[in-house]
Amino acid sequence: IFDATDLATCRMYQSLSETWQGLLKNATEGFARWPALPMITVVMAAVFVFPPILMIAGAVGLLPEALTGPVAIALFSGYLPRVICCLRYDRAWLGALLHPVAVVLFLAIQWTAWVDQKRGRTVQWRQRSYETLSS
Questions:
Q1: Where are the domains of the chain?
Q2: Residue 125 φ then ψ, to 5°
């Protein structure tokens, strides 16, 4: 794996709405399928979302002290790949810091796609309709 920013650029989405719709159109081909979706949700939340929340809870005294070490290790492990990318490839630190928020949004897109598919809704993207795979 290498940094190809000198070779090519790619900007698929210009806004949150475009990003949401763009990811939504392919979600049922990815994680938004049963039984993968609940499993992926639990894993991603446990690795990327809960550790920062629990560390904040620990900082204000709402987490038993015995859990501080394991939660800190989980937090470090979840952020380590993002930090490495920031250091090695000059990526945005704000994006790394907000990674848990991005994970929550990503999971929301997946669940939205699953619910929409169950309701028989098609996905609209750039004036085209996309059929979704049934799960």
A1: 16-130
A2: -150, 120
